[in-house]
Amino acid sequence: MRAPSARRHPAAAAPIERWVRRELTRAPRKAKSLVVTVWGDAIAPHGGAVWLSGLIRLLAPLGLNERLVRTSVYRLVREGWLGARQEGRRSLYRLTAAGSRRFEHAYRRIYAPPIEEWDGCWEIVLAPTAALSAQQRRELRNELGWEGFGLAAPGVYARPARAGRSDVLSEVVGALGLERQVVVLSARDAPGLKARALQALAGDSWNLAALATEYRRFIARFDAALELFRAGSAIDPEQSFVARTLLIHDFRRVTLHDPQLPADLLPSGWPASAAYALCRDFYRLTQRRAERHLVATLETARGALPPAAAYFYRRFGGLR
Residue 270, Cβ neighbours under 10 Å: how many? Predict the structure, then answer.
């Protein structure tokens, strides 16, 4: 991945341009992962389908050349995220049903605030080793990990229960075809028993110290950029799109490893709420200019990029 070529910007935008260049050089992002971020954050709300040529133009300022974009999209097609349609020499790529489901699950967690209240109930998945192949165990572990489950014991996964999440677990188990191999339970600590509480598993099942470090690094890197955007008055829409993409890409990388435990199970001074507030404020500040850049850069088979779906404006508690 390379840094974008030099461009002229208003003087007010120069510090932002320097910050973007520094970010792209200091911490190169993997091309396929960056394509996933852009598709889920920016393209999916606008219908989920774009011409490859437009996608290449959109990703160029993020340091991705044509070869990297083509290779990444090809891999996402092979993995079932995207489907392709050829029209003459042009290629239109669209989210598949499986890709839409993955994005919906992931981004529902990214844009929602941290859990504040919890009633003490847990969701437990029992996956006996003898009932699953090695590949099934690996796929189940990965999918449950993305949904915030920790490994409490061999073949036993747990996460704090939260309203509205049980349907997601059913979809995961169904998509993997494991309805007859795994057992899903709701559980609480038995009152009066002198045994280790489920809450005590938090430190064993999730690496909370490493996660806190990643959140603090995110805050340190993006807090200064937020102040630059607040101070700037003539900010380029392209720079807004690039900054918003880097923001949500790095926040996604941290928060998708976060089991999003309720406050009762977290150590004091937990930084997730501060990171979320920073991401929310930065996203709100850049989203209007970033959307203008999208509309100017992309088009679909029917012409202009359609307006963002209503759910886009519910992100982070509401966008303008």
Answer: 17
- Residue 74 token pair: 């090809």
* Phi and psi torsions of 279, nearest 5°: -65, -40
> Do residues 178 and 136 touch, judged by C-beta distance below 8 A?
yes
pLDDT of residue 228: 87
* Rounded distance between C-alpha atoms, residue 114 and residue 276, angstroms: 8
Q: What torsion do the CA atoms of 156, 161, 167, 170 make, to the nearest 10 degrees?
A: 10
- Tens-place pLDDT, residues 89-127: 899 999 998 888 878 777 777 898 877 678 888 889 999
pTM: 0.83
Residues forming a β-bridge with 300: 303
Rounded to whole angstroms, the Cα distance separating 139 from 66 reads 31
Measured at the alpha carbon of residue 274, what is the angle toward residues 271 and 280, in degrees to the nearest 5?
A: 140
Note the pLDDT tens digit of each residue in 196-229. Answer: 566 677 777 788 899 999 999 999 999 988 988 8
Question: Rounded to the nearest 5°, which phi and psi values hold at 172?
Answer: -65, -50
CB 26 within 8 A of CB 63: no
Neighbours of 37 (CB within 10 A): 24
d(CA 111, CA 287): 14
In this prediction, residue 5 has a pLDDT band, given cuts at 50, 70 and 90, of very low
Dist CA 141 CA 308 (whole Å): 34
Least confident of 187-196, 232-241, 243-252, 289-298: 187-196
184: buried, middle or exposed (CB in 10 Å: 19+, 13-18, 0-12)?
middle
Q: Give the distance, in angstroms, between the CA of residue 199 and the centroid of all CA atoms in the same chain.
A: 27
Q: Taking every pair of C-alpha atoms in the chain, what is the biggest distance, in angstroms?
A: 71
